[in-house]
Design goal:
The structure is a homodimer. Chain A is an alpha/beta fold. Helices cover 41% and strands 17% of the residues of chain A. In chain A, helix 3 crosses helix 6 and helix 7 crosses helix 9.
């Protein structure tokens, strides 16, 4: 059996070489067709091959093939602002007539006017105030419906496409490739878990139970004689930075072996997962393509990337340079 | 295709009838062989058949086949005390020499003396003090090793068997039966999640990521230059009563369609899951067998069952009377 699979591997390697030499005549069966040949793609394929080859010293049993992905800026576009912030601003505008007390108060004034500078300068406190004002007071079922409705009509200001179409085609392929190789793929995002769950299965193939994110407190109560969970205006947990390893441990109870992120919010998740003795994979998406998407790292309020990039080489994390590594950015429209 | 599977169902039904008429000559292929023929078993089989039959008005897609099980008293024995409490008492005895300040203080004195009356009377406050004193201060990896070591040597005081052998054979079969029918099985327990995860895959076939429980706060830090999660002496969440729907929503993001419990701690989980319009299943294990296990409901500090039992009929929850419904209680020794 061992010999047969090695032969098979050799055949696959030769086929792959042909693909490379064919310069652009990419085989349609390449599971990572939107990744250009280069160090990032090669490292991914090498890792997956080694940890899934029976008898390999790097073999990882399927039960431990846990892969965690940040969402904003790693799986979909986070500029000119987090999608969830765009949702919150729209909610403020929609709810404003019922809240005259918001008229001259911050952060509501800035939210109504789309004044990102003031919002960004206000830090976490302002964001928390915005979130609790717009994401609470309804049942969990009602909130999921609000999110679905908004996503159906909202459009990205620059690309004029639904936000759920502005997901990265190479990352969709990576998710599928990992799953085809026995990995369980998770989202571990600073975004609200209930903002993501209504659509992640359809868009990413990631079911609700594999989405980890920030949470608002909820309370069980009887509403009209029917049990319901009501969302309270109170943050339960912020799943960012050092919160990411904490949440992964709490929700999954296993250390991921493959981690992908794009900002310093993913630093501790990368450190924690890749410090293990066995073969591990850390991926950083570096936004370098101002033409097809955005170019940013140091100077941005959304998705700031400094320390994780500095520590990448020392820790063996693979940096995917968007402009160089990705043949396509987004999937075709209207899929 | 439809006609073929109906024929197959008819054949299976006939085979099942033979099994019943054979009075005890239970077919070895019966997935619920340890359940006696009767209303509980019939209700389970009927539910699973209806929700998994393509084209049935009660059909539930596989992605929504979420089944949640309480652990203590539902999957394993919780008398004469919760297993985790036995663990905490042993930890207190082990750590006592390093803690002279515990000598005359409660709850440590009661813990050392195994004085359950004092411990039970102290309520949640005492339990929290015991847990934080014995379950914190180490990394998550270290704690998992402590749990594994303890379980390998600890024995139940009455049955003199490892606690992980005192799991209910009929419930093991039910878990397997549900999984074979496309259900994803979860534990949703008041017990500590990190007390369960080291062994649930081996004993129940439930992987760590499908175990939800009470949690202690953890903190990400660098220990000897290596990232670690350290357990803090601080309760993060108690996954009991109204906390169970809250935790299920937070961790899974879907309402279960099959719920099993044995105490009033499972009441809100039962209410929340079975109030939905579609076909749902609520199961209550009623401990009625003092000879083979224990008989208790109203008068016990561990696993008190009053309200959920009173509301069972009105809500259509199925009560499995342990003495009547279960042919076997435990699996054979040393499996």
């Amino acid at each position: 059996m061992r010999r047969i699979s090695l032969t098979l591997l050799a055949v696959l390697a030769v086929l792959n070489l042909f693909g490379v030499n064919g310069a652009g005549a990419q085989s349609s069966s390449d599971p990572l067709a939107s990744w250009r040949e280069g160090p990032a793609k090669a490292a991914i394929v090498d890792f997956v091959t080694r940890v899934t080859t029976d008898g390999s010293p790097d073999f990882i049993p399927p039960a431990d093939r846990i892969a965690t992905f940040d969402n904003d800026g790693t799986l979909w576009t986070e500029q000119p602002m987090y999608v969830q912030l765009a949702f919150a601003l729209d909610r403020i505008r929609e709810l404003a007539p019922q809240h005259p007390e918001w008229r001259d108060r911050q952060p509501f004034k800035a939210a109504r006017e789309g004044d990102l500078k003031t919002l960004a300068a206000g830090g976490e406190r302002l964001v928390v105030e915005l979130i609790t004002a717009t994401h609470a007071g309804m049942t969990t079922d009602e909130f999921a419906a609000i999110v679905r409705n908004w996503l159906a009509s909202a459009r990205h200001p620059r690309f004029n496409r639904p936000y759920t179409e502005l997901v990265y085609q190479p990352m969709l392929e990576l998710l599928s490739y990992l799953r085809a190789n026995g990995f369980k793929t998770y989202i571990v995002s600073g975004g609200g878990v209930e903002f993501m769950r209504p659509w992640t299965e359809r868009i990413y193939g990631i079911p609700a139970e594999q989405v980890i994110g920030s949470t608002i407190a909820t309370e069980f109560e009887m509403r009209d004689g029917k049990p319901a969970l009501v969302r309270l205006p109170q943050i339960d947990f912020i799943d960012d930075k050092a919160g990411k390893p904490v949440a992964i441990n709490k929700f999954i109870g296993k250390k991921p072996v493959f981690v992908a992120g794009n900002s310093d919010g993913d630093l501790q998740m990368l450190q924690w997962a890749t410090a293990e003795a066995g073969l591990r994979f850390g991926l950083i998406v570096h936004h370098t393509d101002a033409v097809r998407e955005y170019a940013y790292d140091r100077d941005t309020p959304f998705g700031r990337l400094v320390t994780a990039l500095e520590l990448a080489e020392k820790n063996g994390w693979v940096v995917a340079d968007m402009k160089e590594s990705w043949r396509e950015i987004y999937p075709p429209s209207g899929r």
